[in-house]
Every structure is written in C-alpha cells, then in structure tokens.
C-alpha cells in the first residue's frame, strides 16, 4: 500500500499542516483491508481522504481537493507529498517526500498607481431647457389674468420664484421663453382654441411687464382644451366617480360625445365640479 499525504510547511519550519492521506492499494492489501473492515478492526489514524485500487502499470490520476483557511505564514509555505510504502502485512518498506510547489503562493505585488486624465476641451455654450406648469384660473369665457382670482396668487408666486431664480443666476443667460396656453373643456372647440390663445398672451404680457422681458424672445403656443391636464387633476383627486371620469376621457375619442358623457354624470353636478 502507498499512503500519499499532502503537507503544508512554512518557510521557517515552525508551522506544519498535514492533510488526510490518499491510500493506493495493491490486490493483496485490498483483500487484507476488506477483512479488517468486515471484522470491525479498521480504525486508521488519520482517516484516509480516499482509498483507491492501483490499476496495473497504467498512468493513474486521483483528484484531491485541499482546503484550508489562509494564515500569513502560508504566503511563503511549500507544499509537498509524503510517500509511505507498506507491505501487505503493514510492514514498512520505504518513505519518501516529493516537493510539489515552493513557495505555494506567488509573491505579493504592490502596484504602482499612476493617475492619467484628459482635460476636456472648453465647451462654448451649454444649452439647458426647463419646463414649469402654472395652472391659472380665468373667469368663464374670459382671458383677463386676475391675480386675486381663486388660487392665482399662490400660482403666480411660484412663477415669480422660478423666473427670479433664473434671471438672478449669473451663470445663466435666458435666450428664450416658450408659453403654451390651454382652456377648460366647456364651450365649443373653436371658441376654446381662441380662448387658449388669448390666455397664453395674457400670461406673456404678465411676464414682460413684471420682469422687463421686452427684449427676450417669447414663443407663444395654444392648444385649446386641456384634456391632458384635466385628466391629471382628476387622477390626483378624490372626486366622486373618479374612475368613471378617467374611463370616459381615455376611451371616448369624439370630443362632443366625451363632453356629453361627462355632463350626464350625477345629473351634471360632476361636470360642474370639473369646470
């Protein structure tokens, strides 16, 4: 029998870790071992990791995984295999030791770091665009912008804060404003389109007069009835028949039919609340 024992030894010889051996048996020794196991007298110390039968004179590979928690002394340690050959009656025949790896681990490499960077070219102008929504209230069928009407004062304060921050920032140059006007859904389509135009220009006049924007280009757009804005207001609210309203807005494409369905909800009270 050949017992092959992996051994890990520190460079100074003060630390040694021995792993479980691998036994390779000849035919006679295998029979003797079978008898020991059968009679219950097989108590080797240490226990072999595995026991395998020698396969004639052919090359033979026995996979043996080795696992151990790392300690600092293992950095320069060497791995060897101790070979112990015994006869069929456990009589010692020979002992050898074969070096496998010395040192076992590669040396520690301390990297030398260098910082490399590229200075980007100077960017002449950075263009930025911001969108802010101001939901102002107008009297029905009118386009005069009244600061004290409903919650307009609060909305215009927010507008004032945004515009003031932009104008007072020395790193910014305002090159253009874009204003888009809308109207609520009551009334007919053409009237609402004209009304949204007039309301957009009313807000533009407010900006020009309050912030002296006479020399700043302001593009003005109008889109008539603001169904998208109405839908968002309803979605964010707890209004009665909320889900029914959203369903009508989303699935009724004809504007006249859409208004008719909304007006029929709760005898018209829901529609009046929306307006």
Structure notes:
The chain has 275 residues and is α/β, with parallel strands linked by helices. The protein is 32% helix and 19% strand. The strands form 2 sheets. Strands 1, 2, 3, 4, 5 and 6 form a 6-stranded mixed sheet that branches. The chain has a two-stranded parallel sheet with strand order 7-8. A hairpin with a 6-residue loop joins β1 (2-9) and β2 (16-18). The protein is elongated and about 115 Å long. The mean pLDDT is 86.
What is the alpha-carbon Rg in Å?
A: 45 Å
Into which percent range does the helicity of residues fall? 25-40%
Query: Could you say which overall geometry the principal axes of the C-alpha atoms support?
Result: elongated
Mean pLDDT: 86
Let me know the largest β-sheet: 6 strands, mixed
What is the H/E string? EEEHEEEHEHEHHHH
User: In angstroms, what separates the terminal alpha carbons?
Assistant: 99 Å
